[in-house]
């Protein structure tokens, strides 16, 4: 019963309804409260003026909400009569149950009449405090609204069922115990409220005040008031209008607006509506029962959530601690490497200091000795030793030659910690849903007709199954290390095609791909076996360049195996650029002619006679992406120069890791005797110094008279013979024997330059603005080899 109490309270005063009336919107108000919230409307909007204008409107016309709003939906605390500029605005207030209401625009006149009989101002309107619908009252005023006798009866029964002491109905905060009841006002008062609101003077002096208990008994014993017609106050309701859905009297049927409506007996409709309400309550009762069970479930979930939270927090702390421990271990390893680099740099510099000190002491001694010899006055004795001294002086001067007074080690540490992937992973560290709310993507299908290998690069293509309905957010491509090792991620993204460069020559790789979305990761696709370029003496097909994907030969390893083998498209050849260009086409044509039957000519120059059976003639384009910003490329990236007077480095596009490779470059321009450098380098070589200054490059630098080999800033093997405009520089990289040899104009320049060369290398050149060089693909057209050379 206590849960029903809110249904029995007026939204305006917050107390139990007293003489409730029913508004056309079906909400209820105390008759006194309805009078208090009346607002006078402009004359132009009165019912009389609208009837005079001929507009057909009902007695209770709802106003357009766009024209009039007595309720501030922005909760500003003020209501306004929005349709009329002249309408006054009055502060609004909230009733005890939280509904916003409006005080009367003017204080009610002092009268001894009841609220129902008191005169209502002309052109008054009332707004429902619950649904905020507004309507204008007719001449009958509040008497035009029916009284809710059923609600009064429910309130009486509810108050009688309460055993607690009667409370004052006018206390604003905590109601005090009532001491009297006014039979005329039907209100319980405490002493303070009685003195303040019901003083014993004027019309109120005639009211009869009784004790609260007697007042409750008199309420109970008072006869139930019979509901009368609102249009005909002397007539009782006897029928029910089906069209208007309201009780009516006989007079309404004879002369009122319900005369042409369908009516039914009041008792029959009463029983019918009671039956309909009972049926509706059965469904609502089931929902209430389910709601109670659901509340029990939610309370159990609260306890379970608290227990799971403690467990999950402990697990999260343990995982984060494990990450911190791993980071500390890695930190110790990296510090050890830094210390090792530190010791190495100190050792190199100290060795150079010792070497330079000894040589300086010898040079100083020779200088002092020569000065003493010059002081001798014996011509014949002086001439006997002068030639030898001059040769010694020149030899010592040559020992202090180029590069001797250059530090072999830089003060900067070459180590650079790349922590951006780890920081990105830390920022992306997040929780994954344990239970998938939607399915994972289907397994991707490798499109074998579009997969191919070129030289030491592989291109793979895949797609989603045709009937797949689950979208994929991206794909993960994985390759092994070429030796049957673990798979590694080489691509993560939304594309369905990827080219992997820098693979080992003559190696077999396994590739697979999987899809992912927010839910999870799909199973892996079938494994694809990729074979990079093989030896030239292997039997091969002559394929056009570039290779059409539909002509790639595929064979299945086993009828019961899910692994496929993809043959390489160009066995035994080494290319650096796969764009369709005239140079590529002419080079392929020349190689086809060289491999054609009957091609059996003698070698025309020295370097080619030294090329072995497994040598790959390499033509390449320079890589603008990794070049220094001062490098200037032209001729489809086959020609390179520089805009700076300082040496800058540029690399070829693809590296070598196995086999024997030879390439040539020509000097297109050579001004002011610069010393460009040619050789090989790692991808992370320094780009702003001469090639060979660091330990990432192996090079020969040459001027117009002589050349030197240089690695890690160490200059060795000075050799006579330089370059001019039009000279050709050849580079022979033998990764089988792990050595590097240089040629100038088809002649070997000095001995084998470097030994113990292994790893992945890229063709490299360093030059300044006084030099311009180009690669030489066209030079291959001038030579054919015996069957043992290629």
UniProtKB/TrEMBL annotation:
<dbReference type="InterPro" id="IPR001870">
    <property type="entry name" value="B30.2/SPRY"/>
</dbReference>
<dbReference type="InterPro" id="IPR043136">
    <property type="entry name" value="B30.2/SPRY_sf"/>
</dbReference>
<dbReference type="InterPro" id="IPR027370">
    <property type="entry name" value="Znf-RING_euk"/>
</dbReference>
<keyword id="KW-0051">Antiviral defense</keyword>
<comment type="similarity">
    <text>Belongs to the TRIM/RBCC family.</text>
</comment>
<keyword id="KW-0399">Innate immunity</keyword>
<keyword id="KW-0968">Cytoplasmic vesicle</keyword>
<dbReference type="Pfam" id="PF13445">
    <property type="entry name" value="zf-RING_UBOX"/>
</dbReference>
<feature type="coiled-coil region">
    <location>
        <begin position="288"/>
        <end position="344"/>
    </location>
</feature>
<dbReference type="InterPro" id="IPR017907">
    <property type="entry name" value="Znf_RING_CS"/>
</dbReference>
<keyword id="KW-0808">Transferase</keyword>
<feature type="domain" description="B box-type">
    <location>
        <begin position="163"/>
        <end position="212"/>
    </location>
</feature>
<dbReference type="InterPro" id="IPR001841">
    <property type="entry name" value="Znf_RING"/>
</dbReference>
<dbReference type="Pfam" id="PF00643">
    <property type="entry name" value="zf-B_box"/>
</dbReference>
<keyword id="KW-0597">Phosphoprotein</keyword>
<keyword id="KW-0770">Synapse</keyword>
<feature type="domain" description="COS">
    <location>
        <begin position="374"/>
        <end position="432"/>
    </location>
</feature>
<dbReference type="Pfam" id="PF00041">
    <property type="entry name" value="fn3"/>
</dbReference>
<keyword id="KW-0833">Ubl conjugation pathway</keyword>
<dbReference type="InterPro" id="IPR000315">
    <property type="entry name" value="Znf_B-box"/>
</dbReference>
<keyword id="KW-0072">Autophagy</keyword>
<keyword id="KW-0677">Repeat</keyword>
<keyword id="KW-0206">Cytoskeleton</keyword>
<dbReference type="GO" id="GO:0016567">
    <property type="term" value="P:protein ubiquitination"/>
</dbReference>
<dbReference type="GO" id="GO:0006914">
    <property type="term" value="P:autophagy"/>
</dbReference>
<feature type="domain" description="RING-type">
    <location>
        <begin position="10"/>
        <end position="50"/>
    </location>
</feature>
<keyword id="KW-0863">Zinc-finger</keyword>
<dbReference type="GO" id="GO:0051607">
    <property type="term" value="P:defense response to virus"/>
</dbReference>
<dbReference type="InterPro" id="IPR013083">
    <property type="entry name" value="Znf_RING/FYVE/PHD"/>
</dbReference>
<dbReference type="InterPro" id="IPR013320">
    <property type="entry name" value="ConA-like_dom_sf"/>
</dbReference>
<dbReference type="Pfam" id="PF22586">
    <property type="entry name" value="ANCHR-like_BBOX"/>
</dbReference>
<dbReference type="InterPro" id="IPR013783">
    <property type="entry name" value="Ig-like_fold"/>
</dbReference>
<comment type="pathway">
    <text>Protein modification; protein ubiquitination.</text>
</comment>
<dbReference type="InterPro" id="IPR036116">
    <property type="entry name" value="FN3_sf"/>
</dbReference>
<dbReference type="InterPro" id="IPR003961">
    <property type="entry name" value="FN3_dom"/>
</dbReference>
<dbReference type="InterPro" id="IPR017903">
    <property type="entry name" value="COS_domain"/>
</dbReference>
<dbReference type="GO" id="GO:0061630">
    <property type="term" value="F:ubiquitin protein ligase activity"/>
</dbReference>
<dbReference type="InterPro" id="IPR049582">
    <property type="entry name" value="TRIM9_Bbox1"/>
</dbReference>
<dbReference type="GO" id="GO:0005856">
    <property type="term" value="C:cytoskeleton"/>
</dbReference>
<keyword id="KW-0175">Coiled coil</keyword>
<dbReference type="GO" id="GO:0045087">
    <property type="term" value="P:innate immune response"/>
</dbReference>
<feature type="domain" description="B30.2/SPRY">
    <location>
        <begin position="599"/>
        <end position="780"/>
    </location>
</feature>
């Amino acid at each position: 019963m206590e849960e029903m109490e809110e249904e029995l309270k007026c939204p305006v005063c917050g107390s139990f309804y007293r003489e409730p009336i029913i508004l056309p919107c079906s909400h209820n108000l105390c008759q006194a409260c309805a009078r208090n919230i009346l607002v006078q409307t402009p004359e132009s909007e009165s019912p009389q003026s609208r009837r005079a204008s001929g507009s057909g409107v009902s007695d209770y016309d709802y106003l357009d909400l766009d024209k009039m709003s007595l309720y501030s939906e922005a909760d500003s605390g003020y209501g306004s009569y929005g349709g009329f500029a002249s309408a006054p605005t009055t502060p609004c207030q909230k009733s005890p149950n939280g509904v916003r209401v409006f005080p009367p625009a003017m204080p009610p006149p002092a009268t001894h009449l009841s609220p129902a009989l008191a005169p209502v101002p002309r052109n008054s309107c009332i707004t429902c405090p619950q649904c905020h619908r507004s309507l204008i009252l007719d001449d009958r005023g509040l008497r035009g609204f029916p009284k809710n006798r059923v609600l009064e009866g429910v309130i009486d029964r509810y108050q009688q069922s309460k055993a607690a002491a009667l409370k004052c109905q006018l206390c604003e905060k905590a109601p005090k115990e009532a001491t009297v009841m006014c039979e005329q006002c039907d209100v319980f008062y405490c002493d303070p409220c009685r003195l303040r609101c019901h003083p014993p003077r004027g019309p109120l002096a005639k009211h009869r005040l009784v004790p609260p208990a007697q007042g409750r008994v008199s309420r109970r014993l008072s006869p139930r008031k019979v509901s009368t017609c609102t249009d005909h106050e002397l007539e009782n309701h006897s029928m029910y209008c089906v069209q208007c859905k309201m009780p009516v009297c006989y007079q309404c049927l004879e002369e009122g607006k319900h005369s042409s409506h369908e009516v039914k007996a009041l008792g029959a409709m009463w029983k019918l509506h009671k039956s309909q309400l009972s049926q509706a309550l059965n469904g609502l009762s089931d929902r209430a029962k389910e709601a109670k069970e659901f509340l029990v479930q939610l309370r159990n979930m609260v306890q379970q959530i608290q227990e799971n939270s403690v467990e999950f927090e402990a697990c999260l702390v343990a995982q984060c601690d494990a990450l911190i421990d791993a980071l500390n271990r890695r930190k110790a390893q990296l510090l050890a490497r830094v210390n090792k680099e530190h010791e190495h740099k100190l050792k190199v510099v100290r060795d150079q200091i010792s070497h330079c000190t000894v040589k300086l002491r010898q040079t100083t001694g020779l200088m002092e000795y020569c000065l003493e010899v010059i002081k001798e006055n014996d011509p014949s004795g002086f001439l006997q030793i002068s030639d030898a001294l001059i040769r010694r002086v020149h030899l010592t001067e040559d020992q202090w030659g180029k590069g001797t007074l250059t530090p072999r080690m830089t003060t900067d540490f070459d180590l650079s910690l790349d922590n951006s992937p780890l920081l990105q992973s830390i920022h992306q560290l997040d929780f994954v849903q344990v239970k998938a709310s939607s399915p994972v993507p289907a397994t991707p299908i490798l499109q074998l007709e579009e997969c191919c290998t070129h030289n030491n690069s592989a291109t793979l293509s895949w797609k989603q199954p045709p009937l797949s309905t689950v979208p994929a957010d991206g794909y993960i491509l994985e390759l092994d290390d070429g030796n049957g090792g673990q798979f590694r991620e080489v691509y993560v993204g939304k594309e369905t095609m990827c080219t992997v460069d820098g693979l080992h020559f003559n190696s077999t790789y396994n590739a697979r791909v999987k899809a992912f979305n927010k839910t999870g990761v799909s199973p892996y696709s079938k494994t694809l076996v990729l074979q990079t370029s093989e030896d030239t003496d292997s039997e091969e097909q002559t394929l056009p360049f570039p290779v059409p994907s539909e002509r790639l030969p595929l064979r299945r390893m086993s009828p019961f195996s899910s692994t496929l083998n993809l043959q390489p498209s160009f066995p035994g050849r080494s290319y650096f650029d796969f764009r369709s260009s005239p140079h590529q086409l002419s080079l392929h044509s020349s190689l086809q002619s060289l491999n054609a039957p009957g091609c059996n000519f003698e070698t025309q120059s020295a370097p080619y006679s030294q090329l072995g059976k497994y040598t790959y003639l390499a033509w390449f384009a320079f890589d603008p992406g990794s070049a220094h910003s001062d490098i200037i490329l032209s001729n489809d990236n086959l020609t390179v120069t520089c805009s700076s007077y300082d040496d800058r480095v540029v690399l070829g596009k693809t590296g070598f890791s196995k086999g024997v490779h030879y390439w040539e470059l020509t000097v297109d321009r050579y001004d002011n005797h610069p010393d460009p450098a040619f050789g090989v380098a790692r991808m992370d070589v320094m780009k702003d110094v001469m090639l060979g200054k660091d330990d990432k490059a192996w090079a020969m630098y040459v001027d117009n008279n002589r050349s030197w080999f240089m690695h890690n800033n160490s200059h060795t093997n000075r050799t006579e013979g330089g370059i001019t405009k039009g000279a050709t520089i050849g580079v022979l990289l033998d990764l089988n024997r792990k050595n590097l040899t240089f040629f100038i104009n088809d002649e070997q320049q000095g001995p084998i330059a470097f030994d113990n060369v292994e790893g992945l290398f890229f063709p490299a050149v360093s030059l300044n603005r006084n030099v311009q060089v180009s690669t030489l693909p066209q030079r291959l057209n001038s030579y054919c080899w015996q069957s043992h050379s290629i």
